Amino acid sequence: MSALATVLLSALPLIAGWAVHVWWLRGCLNTARRDPLTGLRTRDGFTRRATTLLKDPRAVVVIADVDKFKDINDRHGHAGGDTLLKAIANRLAHHVGRSGVAGRLGGDEFAAVLIDDHGTAADLLAVLHGVLARPVDGHDPALHTTVSLGWARAADFPADDLSGLLRRADEAMYAAKQARAGTRRAGFGRLFATVTGRRAGRTGARTSAPVGAAA
């Protein structure tokens, strides 16, 4: 056996050990980027994938917020609330499909980026609104509520990054919630001034005069 072969054979355990370690680290990283309750991506994991998807001009950014979630917790307990959140997460992920991404931003707020192949995002999201309002299979039929959706088409706001598009979708969602409209598309009005990108009325937001163009 040559000296080179001997060296390579002796290095195999080290190489195998390193490969296992890298595999373990990747598993830990993937776990850290998944919400433990719903299995959706956390904000960090969602941001990474969504930023890549926004390179596609067909991308649509969606914010989904559960209506009257506190009432659900009051009537069905936190276990019931958790069951509802998991059902909503599963339905959202299924609707977005493999070409998109869905994430839980926190509490009862979700976000998604989907690829609108046929320019029918409004119809797709109207269907999703109905799907998300269905009772949870195998549970009390009363365990359900509506979900308000706001969305922004990336091509409408080419200067905006993910943060800006989420902000537009968030304001559209809030308008939909206030009007009980179900879904609303971000228009070309004016965004409200915020701190850390939070809409007025949310934690961390500043309710000062509107600035800038759009939603």
What are the defining features of this structure?
215 residues, alpha+beta, five-stranded mixed sheet, 5 helices
Which regions have little confidence, pLDDT < 50, spanning 5+ residues? 18-31, 193-197, 203-215
Computed CA radius of gyration, to the nearest angstrom: 21 Å
Largest sheet: 5 strands, mixed
* Arithmetic mean pLDDT: 82
What is the 3D form? Answer: globular
Order of helices and strands: HHEHEEHEHE
How are the strands ordered across the major sheet?
Answer: 2-3-1-4-5
Approximate helicity band: 40-55%
How many beta strands in the DSSP annotation? 5
Please state the structural category.
Answer: alpha+beta
How would you describe this structure to a colleague?
This protein is an alpha+beta fold and 215 residues long. The protein contains 5 helices and 5 strands, in the order H-H-E-H-E-E-H-E-H-E. The chain has helices spanning 3-32, 43-53, 69-96, 121-132, 162-179; strands at residues 59-66, 101-106, 109-115, 147-153, 183-185. Strands 2-3-1-4-5 form a 5-stranded mixed β-sheet, with helices on both faces. The model is unreliable at 18-31, 193-197 and 203-215 (pLDDT under 50).
